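S.,

As promised, the L-homoserine run. Input:
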Amino acid sequence: MSYKAVQKVRVKVPASTANLGPGFDSLGMALNLYAWIDMAISEQTTIDLIGDQMHGIPTDKTNLIYKVAQMVFQEAGVSHPELSISMYSDIPLTRGLGSSASAIVGALAGANALIGNKLTEYELFQIASRLEKHPDNVGASLFGGIVVAFWDGEKAESIRIEPDPNLEVLVAIPAFQLATEKARGVMPKQVAMKDAVFNLSHSSLLVAALITGNLGMIRHAMKDALHQPYRAPLIPGMKTLLEQAENHGALGVALSGAGPTMLALVDQRSSRKAELEGFLKETLAKEGIEAQTLWLKPSREGVTTTALQENDGDLQSFVDKEVHA
Ligand SMILES: Nc1ncnc2c1ncn2[C@@H]1O[C@H](COP(=O)(O)OP(=O)(O)OP(=O)(O)O)[C@@H](O)[C@H]1O
Ligand SMILES: N[C@@H](CCO)C(=O)O
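Predicted complex:
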């Protein structure tokens, strides 16, 4: 991490999947699907959103990235009211792949780089958790790998786990959006003790399986009684996928974050990948849901920043040359 203030910075931030089934609001994994943000201190604020992914995102000072950057400056006791911001993202919005967390973490890291990293990663994690109100997506986007975390309303703590090298991730991204707020709204305010114990034991077992590389245990551990049963009616086909994907080659299956994306963990050595992908797509199609499938890997790296020089190209040309190369 650089401690020298820079004029212009390029941020690369990974997508993330939260919960991994039983770890509601406490487990997250960074994925190798990325967003990029260029940020510079400027005379006048401009916000340039590149690509098809960003429909509906404001381009004035109400923009989340602008607002989060200002929080960093305020926390560090500096004033930079005008910023030039460009963003490009391959992370679909409002689908359960942590788009809001990527925007928050990207903005925190970018603004912090512009002021010579005055805030620590731990401080950024506190701000990010406060903003998202849960630490799972932001922890994964910030630290990379698999993150086990809590946020108690005041502070967040986390430990990062190195993902097993054989872990691969298949996501099925439905063509409709589901806001986290809506998917949290269907959950009960109180849960039965037996469901709490169910999740404690399964989440703990899942963490142990991920740490020890016991991939065969994932099918037993990746079960949830706290949020998926309530969210299933919002995603037709989800119940069938949860019940049957393991019979088609998945190590385990879960709703990704607040959905609607469905996620399967897969051993990359599996010979049944095509079968699993077909099963996910066909199950959703039977319910009239068109879904895009993507094969991903855990992203070992969290958010990174690179100082840009005057003559470095803009984000659009970087995306054309490097991302879509
Ligand atoms: N680059 C961005 N700039 C500004 N706002 C963004 C950006 N990306 C996401 N958002 C905001 O975050 C909202 C999506 O957040 P939401 O928590 O509902 O879904 P998600 O983060 O994609 O999924 P999940 O949290 O379930 O993984 C968008 O509707 C938008 O308001
Ligand atoms: N843990 C969160 C992730 C979505 O932002 C949830 O499931 O609501």
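The chain is about 35% helix and 25% strand. Residues 18, 57, 63-65, 87, 89, 93-101, 103, 137, 179-180, 257-258 surround adenosine-5'-triphosphate (ligand 1) (CB under 6 Å).

- D.
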